[in-house]
Amino acid sequence: MTAVAVIGAAGRMGRATVDAVEAAGDLTLSASIGRNDDLVAGLEGADVAVVMTGPEGVDDIVATCVEQGVHAVVGTTGWTGPGLAKVRAALEKSPSTGVLLAPNFALGAVLLMRFAAEAAKHFESVEVVELHHPNKADAPSGTARHTAEQIAAARREAGVGPSPDATTASLDGARGADVEGVRVHSVRLRGLVAHEEVLLGGPGEQLTIRHDSFDRISFMPGVLLAVRQIANRPGLVQGLEHYL
Predict the structure, then answer these.
(1) Whether the Cβ atoms of residue 230 and residue 7 lie closer than 8 Å to each other
(2) What is the pLDDT of residue 148?
(3) Annotated binding residue at 1?
(4) So where are the chain's domains?
(5) Binding of NAD(+): at which residues (predicted)?
(6) Residue 105 annotated as lining a ligand binding site
(7) What are 50's strand-pairing partners?
(8) Do the annotations mark residue 8 as ligand-binding?
(9) Active-site residue among 71, 132, 185, 211?
(10) Which neighbouring-strand residues pair with 206?
C-alpha cells in the first residue's frame, strides 16, 4: 500500500483527490492537509504527497516534501523560474525523490497536447484557446502554456515559420498572450470547468482539436497514475506525458 497525503485537501481538486485515493485498493490516505495544518507533521508516514493548492507558496510546500523524502505529484500551475530553482535545489540534496509538475492530469488533455504538436508541423497557422471557470487565478492556464510550448518546439524542429499575422493596431490583449510565438487566448466563464482547443489553419482548410473536462473526476486517472509511478521517476519531471 502506498501512503498518500493530500495537500490542499479542502479545495475542489483536493476533495476529488481524497475521494479517489480512498477508493483505490492499492493506496491509503495518510493525511488530508489544509492551509493551517502542520505540513511536516502531516507528511509523516507518507510515501507520496499530492499537492493541489493555489500558486502562493507552492514552491515552499514542494521543497518541504522533498526535504522530508516524500515524492510530490503537483497539480498547481503558475510556476516561476525562482520557484522551479527552489525545487531543483531541494532535489539536489534528495536525488532519489521525485517531483511531477503536471499542468493537467486529464489523459485526454495530455493526448491533445501531443496531437496538436504533431499537427502544428503541417499547418501555416496555429492558435490556442483555453476556457475555464471564473475562479481560476492564472491566465493563460498552465495547460495552455504547456500546449503552446510543445507546439512551438515542434514547429522549430520542423522548420515551420511563425503564423502569419498582419495586425498593426489592436487593443491591449486583443491578440492574446504570446507563448514562444504561439498566440494563446483565455476565456473565464461561469459554468465552465476546464476546456482547451487548438485551431490550425492552412489554405482552404481548418483543423480543430478540442478537449473538455466537465467534472474534476476527469483528472483522477492521471493523478493516480502519477502516484503509482513517481517512486520510479526521481528528479523533476514537467508534464504527465512523460509518464504515458
Answers:
(1) no
(2) 97
(3) no
(4) 2-101+217-243, 107-213
(5) 8-13, 44, 75-77, 102-105
(6) yes
(7) 6, 73
(8) yes
(9) 132
(10) 201
The question of whether 136 is a catalytic residue gets the answer yes
Question: What does the pLDDT look like over 16-44, one tens digit per residue?
Answer: 999 999 999 999 999 999 989 999 999 99
Residues 48 and 227: their CA atoms lie apart, in Å, by: 7
Query: Is 104 annotated to bind ligand?
Result: yes
Active site residue 121: no
Answer whether 48's CB lies under 8 Å from 4's CB. Answer: yes
Pick out the chain residues at pLDDT < 70: none
- Read off the pTM: 0.84
pLDDT at 77: 85
Which amino acid is present at 54? G
State the architecture of 107-213 in CATH terms.
2-Layer Sandwich (3.30)
44 is in an annotated binding site: yes
Choose among 100, 126, 93, 98: nearest CA to 112.
Answer: 126
* Architecture category of domain 2-101+217-243 in CATH: 3-Layer(aba) Sandwich (3.40)
Quick one: pLDDT at residue 78? 81
pLDDT of residue 137: 85
Q: H or E segment at 108?
A: helix 107-119
